[in-house]
Design a protein that fits this description.
By secondary structure, the protein is mainly α. It has one domain (about 1-80). It is built from 5 helices and no strands. Helix 1 (about 1-15) packs across helix 4 (about 40-65) and helix 4 (about 40-65) runs antiparallel to helix 5. The longest helix is centred in the middle third of the chain and has 26 residues, at about 40-65. The radius of gyration is 14 Å and the shape is elongated. The chain starts with a helix and ends with a helix.
Length: about 80
């Protein structure tokens, strides 16, 4: 479910957002988040950074059998809590 929500957020940003420019989001998501003045958009961007993207990375690493990547993700998650 997290993957579907994350992809939907990406699609919305890339297809429907005019300002700040989408190129900023693709090149530097933190700068993009700093330019956003909408509370809902800030929530979506924070969700991507703190839950959506890490969840997709966990799933991909598990499917590829990359244990070293999973250990790194576990450490990252521990420090996020």
């Amino acid at each position: 479910m997290l993957r579907v929500i994350s992809v939907a957020i990406y699609a919305y940003i890339i297809q429907d957002v005019d300002y700040p420019p989408v190129e900023v989001f693709l090149e530097n998501p933190e700068a993009f988040e700093g330019r956003v003045n909408n509370a809902g958009a800030i929530v979506l961007l924070k969700f991507l950074r703190q839950a959506g993207i890490p969840a997709m990375q966990y799933q991909r690493a598990a499917r590829q059998g990359r244990g070293e990547k999973l250990i790194t993700l576990f450490a990252h998650t521990l420090h996020m809590v």
